[in-house]
Amino acid sequence: MNNISNTDSKKERIKLIVFDMDSTLIDAETIDELARAAGVFDKVAEITNNAMAGEINYKDALSTRVQLLKGLPLKTAQEAVNGIPLMPGAEDLLKYAKSMGYITAMISGGFRLISNRIGEILQMDYVISNDLVIEDDCLTGEFTGPLIAGDSKERVFEEIVRENNICPEECVVIGDGANDIGIFKKAGYSIAFNSKPVLHQYANVVITDKNLRAIIPVLESFEPE
């Protein structure tokens, strides 16, 4: 584990942990795997990398990639995402979070095609993601949902915080790309997990070990001795 502390802010008692999904809770980018099944992997993966590095507008990048999936049969798409594994250590980390009584939330610009299953496996309290539009059992190249605009994650995060009557300082967020910058700024503590360099400057801790168990000691440091 490689931890890089960027702030000396006072640590609050944790009440909520927010996770990204792609390349955080799961060991792949969902849209890249869908693109692989559709035969457009190289095009989509390049856009994904640029978007995660903050080089392309989030909404435009997502729209362009989803359009390239037009015509992919739903059955093929489902098989593609069903093969995506959990990130190593995901189940252990979520069991720890639950044992401590933390509220857990997944806020992902990915799709319910996989996010609902991951949320059930990990027993997440909140699973918020987008929907791929399906017609005649094929993807139309369109999508809908609450996480379309560049600031969508922040707005969803704020809604969950209000609903649970807690403050952002009592929240930890974990993510890996430029689209997590907004919630990194708002939360009391932020952890960049196996992330793009663009996110490091906004993180309290950077973890380069590709195993979510590495986050448990960080969370333990919040608990009173």
Quick structural overview:
The protein is α/β, with parallel strands linked by helices and 225 residues long.
Question: What are the SSEs and their pairings?
Answer:
Layout: E1 16-19, H1 30-38, H2 41-52, H3 58-67, H4 74-82, H5 90-99, E2 103-111, H6 112-122, E3 126-135, E4 138-144, H7 152-163, E5 171-175, H8 181-186, E6 189-193, H9 197-200, E7 205-207, H10 216-220
Parallel strand pairs: 1-2, 1-5, 2-3, 5-6, 6-7
Antiparallel strand pairs: 3-4
Helix pairs in contact: 1-2, 1-4, 2-3
How is this structure best described in words?
- With 225 residues, this protein is of the alpha/beta class.
- It has a domain at 16-27 and 85-220: HAD superfamily/HAD-like (Rossmann fold).
- 39% of the residues lie in helices and 19% in strands.
- The chain has helices spanning 30-38, 41-52, 58-67, 74-82, 90-99, 112-122, 152-163, 181-186, 197-200, 216-220, and strands spanning 16-19, 103-111, 126-135, 138-144, 171-175, 189-193, 205-207.
- Strands 4-3-2-1-5-6-7 form a 7-stranded mixed sheet, with helices on both faces.
- Helix 2 runs antiparallel to helix 3.
